[in-house]
Amino acid sequence: MPSERTLRIASAIVAVLGMAVATYITIADAGGGSPVCVAGGGGCETVAKSSYSHLAGINVAVFGVLGYIGLLGAAAVKDDRGRLAALLLSVIGFGFSAYLTYLELFVIDAICQWCIGSAILMTISMLIAITRAAGYLGALPPASPDMPDRQAPPESLD
Amino acid sequence: MSKNERQKEQRELKEARLRADAEEHAKERRSNLFKMAGGAILVAIIVIGVLIVVSQSGSDTKKQDAKLAGIPQNGLVLGKPGAPITVVEFGDLQCPFCKQFSETVTPAVIDGPVRKGKANMEFQNFVIIGPDSVAAAYAAYAAAEQNRYWDFIEAFYAEQGTENTGYVTDGFLTKIANDAGVPDMAKWEKDRKDTSRWDKQIKKTQTQAAALGFQGTPSFAIRKGNGALKAIQVEKSQDLLDAINQAGK
User: Fold this and answer.
1) Distance (Å, rounded) from C-alpha B164 to C-alpha B190?
2) What ipTM was estimated for this complex?
3) Angstrom distance (rounded) from CA B28 to CA B21
4) Greatest CA separation found in chain B?
5) What are residue A124's phi and psi, to 5 degrees?
């Protein structure tokens, strides 16, 4: 089991990458255009122009940006609140990404690499959050050999 | 046992008891936290469900349904087939202005004179943008064979991409036909490949548009009964409504 610090750092890196992807999609949409697929083809355009790209009038990528900001915040919080928040946000993000990927494959019939990229990052986030929660949720802080009855000092700042 | 040894033993016993209490407490706390984690996952599932429901209900297709609901469609014609006046739109499905007109200009006509049976509307594929427009026109004509032409046009506009980017693929057109509610997809697939038939229709529209002096899309013309088509200048809904009133006199 990796240390919680390692998991939190990994989660923060994934959240920053996800934020970059979702921000790119949001900016491309706000500018009246569409994200450009790196390998060419009109997949990104088709997906971005589909009626499913907006939720209650808001581009779904905006929800992605907010979700990744939340995950970054959860990675910064060291206690159980951070662990639970990361779990909640990443499961929502993963579920909704899975639904959007289903739409791309079977309803819109077009694939947007940026959206798939975000879905992969969200999946990694969820796996990290589950590992963190399973391994560290409510765990006793490591006992100090000198003071067995007292809690160990809080983790040092990253 | 010396006094010191007894004291040491008592201290160790106390420490062991405290440790056991702490462990018990931590175990209980951990169990509660895992229950909370389960609750968080449950909340997440509910949120995902709500997001999916909102996503489905927000689809543009539903709005199109409301716009055309209850109005008959026959081939290329929207509205009562025998209506005294016909408004003909010369449009290209790839053209963003045509989409804009379908959202801001024609709804007043569709919901007014067309719904009331005073006029009907015809859409002619005046393909001027590129090969994607031709593929779109074939697919639209095939939908017209099953009286879903106007649904197809609306569904196409809802998903319209940037001109000539190659987005009008077979998959894209199939999705549009599905959105438009084309009942027999196998027939639609077969019909849209009957290109020589649709090419004749497209050629006829081009000749008509040239005779009316049209060079861009959307362009509009009006006809009373079986009379000749007359070009009309349209910038807003009122222009079309006035032309219909004028033709009706």
Assistant:
1) 24
2) 0.78
3) 11
4) 125
5) -60, -45
